[in-house]
Amino acid sequence: MKLLTKTNRIYLAFSLVIYLLTAVAFYQIIRLVIYDEVENRLRVEKRDFEAYVRARNAWSNIPYFVENKIEVIPVRRNEAHPEEFSDTLILNRYDNELIPFRQLTFYQPIQGVIHRVEIRKSLIQTYRLIEVMTVAMMIFLGLLLVGTFWFQGKLSGRLWHSFYDTLARIKGFDLSSGTSMALEKPEITEFRELNDVFQKMADKMQQDYRSLKEFTENASHEMQTPLALINAKVEQLIQNEQLTEIQTHWIESIYQASRRISRLNQGLLLLAKIENRQFSDSQPVNLSSLLAEKLTNMEEVLSFKQLSIHQQIAVPFEVLLPATLADILVTNLVNNAIKHNQTGGRIELRSTANQLCLSNTGGQLISSPERLFERFKKESTGPDSVGLGLSIIRQICDSYGLTIEYHETEGIHRFCITRVLD
Known about the structure:
Blueprint: H1 3-56, E1 70-74, E2 84-92, E3 97-110, E4 113-122, H2 124-159, H3 161-171, H4 189-238, H5 245-275, E5 282-286, H6 287-297, H7 299-304, E6 308-313, E7 318-322, H8 323-339, E8 346-351, E9 355-361, H9 389-399, E10 402-409, E11 412-419
Parallel strand pairs: 6-8
Antiparallel strand pairs: 1-4, 2-3, 3-4, 5-7, 8-9, 9-11, 10-11
Helix pairs in contact: 1-2, 4-5, 5-9, 6-8, 8-9
């Protein structure tokens, strides 16, 4: 969820609560004010009634247009109570509807007899006034809320424009392109300082990337040449018939060590190139088809170890990979399945749209499965193994939106490559 969306939701919830409380408070205040005005008018009418009774010592029911405005009823003396206000409903004889009234009840002696006097005033206009004012206030607050959010959205869009521009430039930044990120200098101090930090980081990363790339290229060229020369000279010495058995053994050891160094050098340089994303020619690759083809090309080795192949390719497993890395990944998978297999075992290939699995029979795993993809972690003790094959596979998968997992069940070792779903 975006920051502005989260902020707007919190602000909206808070505003709605405040506006609701304000509406309730406004309604109660208006109601109290109007009720106070009605009660003051009833008290005025009470004083007029008392003055009229004192002047005449009698009361005559004078007709009113509003029915039941004043009602005088004789009561026993012990029924007298202090004056009180109350709400009541009276049936309108014209409309046959109940009309709300505010009523003042008090007790007045007339000609020596206690009378209960009820003075009523209609609240129809009062309720209508309260309703109109409340509705008007709600409409006003609603328009104010909508206008505030509209203005906030426009203002936030302008204020955060530089931030989203910086974010877009960072997403599109490519170390291998050699182009500077070239961030803008916005007016807002915090965003300008943030861009300055990002700019310095990007420049430093590009410098380190160029230095590392130059090192790997130089190392690849400068180390491979003397290693190739050493291997060539050692091969010539091995063919010399004048060497003793001990000398031949020493030279063969030197030759094996030289070849091992060469393979280590190639593997480490390849890992560095993959990490630095120096392979940029990604293209759709059918890994299941490429893996099946690689197994076919290894037919002689498979026959020598008496390994059987079982393929279940339901749907081709296609991914975006540089062709070179795809071939390396497949080769390392197949070599691992053959090298750690047992004589008379089998290799099984399964493929779906989102997963590719290569399984092989084999012995019990010596090391922890969690450390199987670490560099220089070897299951085989043979001189040809340098412990980088699975590390290269993991690095290729991590760099190109894939995951690889290892599972072992009853002597079946399974490596599964899965597409990372967004």
